């Protein structure tokens, strides 16, 4: 049987070495994919209480590792053929690099994200005006659920946004939940210049401080632990309401508070509701 297969391989118009490399490539890819499926299933069975987000994170991580292993395996299997063709294909390779510049930049951005750990699945990020919660990451792009349409609302719109990882090389990434389960949240509210800022700030504090009081001691202790362990300069957990001039028509009130990630929108909405009520009352008083 082996002799028959050997004769069949010799009869083909390509070399036996290339055919063997192709067969090894197919077997390697099948083995890696099967191994990934087995390990992932075993992981999910051994951790039945994993949340959907953690399962999604494991799925994305295993997929990216599988792709990396396949690429490394193919490079090792075809190393001899690649080396033989390297010199003769130098000009072609240069042309390919020029033609695939965007692809190379996407791969570079993906490597940068992995090395610097800029964000991962479940993080709230903003880049180049795009804001959302990350749901998928691969070697070329990042997919996230859009937050909007108004940035003050902060709710998921039900739409997805996808951006190439090449943006990571040229744009700043804003990540909201750098502190894990807690967040330092800031809301900037434009106010007509003729409205009394003292009364507005007083009203907002009366709403904000009771809502945050239960979280301040826990978050402050957490921030101190983060500062000691990671040598981060962490902000204070106490809520603050400040005012800053803007122009001759409006000034801005800056509301800043610390809360669990799951509570920040609820607290923010309570503050905005109180501002709208106070603004309505003050405007009607001036008429």
From TrEMBL:
Occurrences of domain Mechanosensitive ion channel MscS (ranges): 107-144
Recite the UniProt keywords alphabetically: Membrane, Transmembrane, Transmembrane helix
One Gene Ontology MF term = mechanosensitive monoatomic ion channel activity
Which sequence ranges are marked TM in the entry?
Answer: 18-39, 60-79, 85-104
Q: State the Pfam families in the record.
A: MS_channel_2nd
The record, for SUPFAM superfamilies, names: Sm-like ribonucleoproteins (SSF50182)
Q: Can you quote a single GO CC term?
A: membrane
Q: Where in the cell is it found?
A: Membrane
Could you identify this protein by its name? Answer: Mechanosensitive ion channel
